[in-house]
Structure formats: C-alpha cells, structure tokens
Write a structure and sequence with these properties.
Layout (H helix, E strand, L loop, with lengths): L9 H11 L6 E7 L2 E6 H17 L7 E5 L4 H11 L4 E4 L6 H11 L3 E4 L2 H10 L8 E4 L16 E2 L2 H25 L5 E6 L9 E5 H14 L8 E4 L6 H14 L2 E4 L6 H8 L3 E4 L1 H16 L3 H22 L6 H20 L7 E4 L6 H10 L2 E7 L6 E4 L12 E2 L3 E6 L6 E5 L13 E7 L5 E2 L3 H7 L6 E10 L2 E7 L4 E2 L5 E2 L1 H8 L5 E7 L6 E7 L1 H8 L12 E2 L2 H15 L8 E7 L18 H7 L1 H14 L1
Parallel strand pairs: 1-11, 3-4, 3-5, 4-8, 5-6, 6-7, 10-11, 12-13, 13-14, 26-28
Antiparallel strand pairs: 1-2, 8-9, 9-20, 14-15, 15-16, 17-18, 17-19, 19-21, 21-22, 23-24, 25-26, 27-28
Helix pairs in contact: 1-8, 2-3, 2-6, 4-5, 7-8, 10-13, 11-12, 11-13
C-alpha cells in the first residue's frame, strides 16, 4: 500500500496515484464498448473530471451544492464524481431501481441542482417528475439516444448531454484551471462528500451525510487490513456504486491503491465478464457466492456415479487441507498430493468460471452462510467478510488476510470502538478496539454500537433522527444484534427483525433462514412467527431446479396465483425442510410454509435496493394467506 500521509480527501486519492504509483498513461478503468473491452487511462479520467468541474463552475455551481447521479456503473460515473468532488460539491447517487415517488423525494430532500442519467428508461422517469423538483436545474443524459425521447411541455430544467458537458468543460478548463486547483486544495476533511439515502426498510429514506474523512479513513484502514491488495490488481465492479459498499470497497480502494477497475456489463452477463476480465479481486454479496456454490454442487453431483464421487472426494480433501492450514499445521505429503489431484480434477474447473485469477473475494451487505464460506475456502479462494452500514462509511470490522473464522465478520478496524449493549438494560456489556484484540475473546450478544472516524455526520435535515441514532456519548446504534466470538464480531440479526414467539422465545430469523438456504431447492425464505406459537415461512423455490424436476413450462410462472399449491411441489420442498430442521432447536423449526411462485421484488415494493426483504410490507401484503396457513396448521393437528 502506498504512503497515504498526504491523502485526506476523495479527490486526493486519485491524484496521489499519478504522482506516486502509476504513470498517467496507465490503465485505470476498463469497460466494454461495441463488444470490445476498452482501457481508459488515469490521465483521461482526470481530464474528463476537470472538464466536469469547469462546466459546473461556469454554470455557477458552488461548494456544498448537491449533484445527482442515477446511472449504472461505468466510466461516466467516475468522470462525473471526480469532477464534482474536486469542486467540493456533494455526490447524491440514486438507485436506478427506485420508484418515481422515491426519486422525486430524494431530489427534493437533497435540493439537487443537476442529475446525470444513464439510459432511456431512467431519463423518462426523471422527465415525469422534473417539474415537481424545485431546485433541479440540469438533466444530463449520458447516452446518445436521449434526443429521441419527447420532452414534456413546460419543462423547467435544461437538458444537456454528458458529451456536451465534457466538450464544453474542456474548452473552458484553461479559464477555470487555477480555481479548480484552489478549491480542491481548500477542501476540509469534515466537508460532506456524499449523501447516500438509506433504503427505507422502516420508513422514509434518510440522507446519510458522509464526509471526506469518513471515506478516506475507511479506505485507509481497509487497505491496512488487506495488505495483499497490490497496485496491479484488477477489480471487477458489478454492485451498484450508489451503495456505500461498492463505493468504498472497489472505487475508493482502486483510487488509493492504484488498482484497475473494470465494469461488468450487467448481472446477467457477470459470469461471461468474469471469464473475459479475469479479475483478481471482487466485492460481492452472499447471494452470488451461494449461487456459485449451488451450481458447483449441482454440476458436480447431478449425474451421480464416479463423477459425483470424485467431486465429493475433492471437497472433503479441500476441507481437510484447509483445516490443517487454519490450525497452523503443515499438510503432510499424502494430503498435499491429494489436494493437487483435487485441484486438477475439480477445483481448477470451478475457478476457470471466475477467470482463474481470483486471489480473494470480499463479501458484504448481508451475513455469508458458514457453509458457503467454507466451500470457497476448500477451493483455495479466500472470502473476506466485513461488517458495516451506510452510516459507518461503511466498514466497522474486516477479516484479517491471514485469519479466517467462518460465520464471523472480522476484527474491529483501527481507530474506532465497537461495543455490545444489552438490549433491555442498555448496559454496555463490552467494548472492543483493534488494539484490544484477543483471538480467544467471547462475550454475550446485544445491540452493536460504534463510535469513531467511521460514523456519519448525521442525517441530512433530520436532527431528531440523528439524535435518536447517535446518543449523547457519541455511540451510533446500528440496530444489529451480535457478539464477539474468537475475537471477531459475529452478527446474529437485525434488532427490528427479531421474532418473539407467543412463549417469549427470541428467534433471530437470519441464522435460521441460512440453515434452510442450504437446500438447493430453496432460492429465498422469509420467516414468520412474531407473537405466534410456532414459526412458518414463505419460500421461493429454485426455479431452475423445480423446472428440471417437474418439467413445467415458463408460462407456469406467469400464472396469476401468488402461491403454488401443487402437492408434489410442496412435498418436494418439505423433504428438505424436514432434513435441515434437525439442525435447529425445536422452537426455531418451521411447522408450515407457503411456496411463492416468483421471488420478492423491488417492483412490488417487497425488497430494498440492497435486496433486504421489507418485513412489515410482506407480512401486511400476504396477511390473509398467512392467517390461512396458521389455521391450516391447527386443523392438521
């Protein structure tokens, strides 16, 4: 990792690379254009950023103005962000999947002056609400077909293509060059770099104010934890840059360490892009890793016979080899030879699908099931986990490169304190820092609280909500439940997700759901049981597996009935429910379930952009069916 003494603001990250790490002509960004991968240098990136800065200074944009982005990941996001950051304006990134109502709220709440828009669909969405957005002055389409979209009558905001922004800015740069430099050098670490709106699982989205210091200190300590990241690493970016995890974990890390940042074309093309780009590092979410795990097991065992035996033998060999290393022992000659054979026959074929160069994966956004982490460890691909929230920039804890404790999210990062607070008494059970780390330390669970450089400045224009989240002793209350285990933080669940059954037993849904998600027949599961005598669930089956088993056509999933009632399908899933229930306490086991025809979706308002199920929304939406399910269970008894 390069010296970072002079790095204190987001714009200084990239500037440091061309001064201290790479030549300006070296490749920074890689994206696909007209079916060809195109390299973009640090020099080109900075020139385009300067053009963006000059354009907006010419338009009268000043320090602290909020500047929007509603665009998929790509080079244009980076050019625009770098341009607005260095003139000390604020990045307000909006999830492209949000509804018109939510987008309008964010634009107005932030007082946004301009917005970069990525495609025709998003452009039309903005045009519909533009005249309701009081301070919006510029709509900037970043795609050539925008001229084909009819504009509404009386549109108040000015339409300027991003190409025109860049060309105009380049012509005016000489005039504004010194001013841009002066503003960039005068940015304070406490100045707001970005407003990131929470996904709103429990109410109206809130704009999280993150400063330059929040971001820069977070990426510094992450790189300090991950000393294996090198300047020649290639990251493949597919998680949205509108989310703080990808912003810090890929974009800002690449800016500081000088890594190359390649952009996947889409989630659907991710597997193809991985094979083409051959990344060495990727940020990902647990669901992606679960799918790789599920497909590998299905492919390895589906035909039975010798192929399945070899696959299962290889997995057991990888497990034995991994456990030896984790115990600090050197694998013997026989085990090492078996590992080489397993690598050649099985592991190398799975790794080829990721491009074959992955050093490690970084998993965040949700808890990674223990068995999935172990699977990748058996292959020899390390999965590093971290924990944090939008409000914590985001990282609070991170796995050390040389130590893995599956089912945990790592060690407290330097410079902050993480506490565990009793939910009922509010007594702080324990406080841990990076320096107090003890690999044998354990403590009871409670709410996770944090204070230090990672904590946000507050919620934009919401002092009451800020005071509720950050107490008088500067502790930020995460709303997550956890404990320390073997020195690492372990997440139990969200405080607001906790189910208290009719007998007063506390059930945290996530670990229970993760047990059932071991089934290759289950794609999603939603646990129900608050104030009820027992647990039930809504289950979304693995569509591919179900079609393979029962041969139903695609039209089956277009039927108007929300839930599947076919007894053969119910029994097929029930077999795995019974199997995995054995791993749970009796009060944690599912007694009845419904099979939902299609996954929970953002379009239906059932999940957030970060793929978290909106518990209250789902329970209210399917209340009648849930009641019938409980009634049926009682009658069956």
């Amino acid at each position: 990792m390069p010296s970072s003494d002079k790095i204190s603001t987001v714009p200084s990250l990239l500037r440091n690379v061309v001064e201290s790490i790479h030549s300006p002509e070296s490749t920074f960004l890689v994206h696909k254009k007209a079916d060809q991968w195109e390299n973009i240098s640090f020099k080109t990136t900075l020139e385009n950023a300067d053009a963006v800065s000059a354009f907006f200074l010419d338009k009268g944009i000043t320090k602290g103005d909020r500047m929007g982005l509603m665009i998929e990941n790509g080079a244009d996001y980076i050019f625009y962000d770098q341009g607005i950051q260095q003139i000390n304006t604020v990045n307000v990134s909006i999830y492209p999947t949000l509804s018109e109502h939510e987008v309008e709220y964010i634009i107005n709440d932030s007082g946004m002056k301009a917005i970069l828009v990525g495609n025709t669909f998003l452009f039309k969405k903005i045009l519909k609400i533009a005249n309701n957005c009081r301070q919006l002055q510029y709509i900037i389409p970043a795609f050539p077909e925008y001229g084909k979209v009819p504009l509404p009558a009386g549109l108040k905001a000015e339409i300027i293509s991003f190409e025109e922004v860049l060309q105009t800015g380049k012509r005016k740069f000489a005039h504004f060059s010194q001013e841009i430099t002066n503003i960039r050098n005068a940015i304070k670490t406490s100045d707001i770099s970005s407003l990131i709106y929470t996904s709103g699982t429990t109410g109206t989205p809130k704009g999280v104010m993150l400063s330059h210091n929040n971001f820069v200190e977070n990426v510094k300590v992450c790189l300090d934890q991950m000393k294996v990241i090198e300047k020649n690493d290639v990251f493949l970016s597919f998680l949205p840059l509108s989310h703080v995890f990808e912003r810090t974990g890929t974009y800002h890390v690449c800016c500081m360490a000088g890594c190359t940042m390649a952009f996947a074309q889409s989630l659907e093309l991710l597997a193809k892009n991985m094979a083409e780009v051959r990344p060495t590092v990727m940020n990902c979410v647990p669901r992606l890793l679960e799918r790789i795990h599920d497909k590998a097991f299905k492919s390895g065992t589906a035909d039975g016979g010798m192929k399945a035996k070899i696959f299962l033998w290889a997995m057991e060999t990888g497990k034995n080899y991994r456990q030896k290393l984790e115990a600090g022992k050197t694998p013997g000659l026989l085990l090492s030879t078996e590992k080489m054979i397993a690598e050649k026959l099985v592991f190398s074929k799975i790794k080829e699908k990721t491009g074959g160069r992955l050093k490690f994966l970084i998993s965040g956004g949700a808890a990674l099931p223990k068995n999935v982490g172990e699977f990748f460890g058996n292959l020899g691909i390390k999965v590093c986990e971290g924990f944090g929230l939008t409000e914590t920039s985001p990282v609070m804890t991170f796995s050390e490169a040389d130590r893995q404790v599956y089912g945990t999210v790592g060690r407290v990062i330097p410079g902050i304190e993480v506490g565990i607070q009793n939910i009922e008494t509010k007594e702080i059970i324990n406080i841990q820092t990076h320096d107090t780390f003890d690999e044998n330390f354990e403590c009871p669970e409670g709410e996770i609280i944090v204070r230090g450089h990672c904590v946000m400045q507050g919620y934009f224009n919401k002092p009451a909500e800020t005071a509720e989240a950050i107490d008088k002793d500067d502790w930020f209350h995460t709303g997550d439940i956890g404990r320390f285990y073997k020195g690492y933080l372990q997440i139990t669940d969200r405080l607001k997700n906790m189910i208290v059954n009719a007998y007063g037993k506390n059930v945290y849904p996530t670990p229970v759901e993760n047990i059932y998600l071991k089934s290759l027949k289950i794609e999603q599961i939603f646990l129900i049981g608050d104030k009820r005598e027992y647990l039930t669930a809504i289950i979304i089956p693995n569509r591919e597996g179900m079609q393979e088993k029962f041969g139903m056509p695609n039209e089956f999933f277009d039927a108007p009935e929300v839930f599947i009632t076919d007894p053969e399908i119910i029994e097929w899933i029930s077999q795995d429910i019974k199997l995995f229930s054995k791993e749970l306490a009796k009060f944690e086991r599912i007694k009845n379930f419904m099979v939902k025809r299609n996954p929970f979706s953002m379009e239906e308002g059932e999940i957030t952009p970060t793929m978290k199920i909106k518990r209250k929304v789902v329970e209210k939406k399917y209340a009648e069916s849930i009641t019938e399910m409980y009634t049926a269970s009682v009658e069956a008894d």
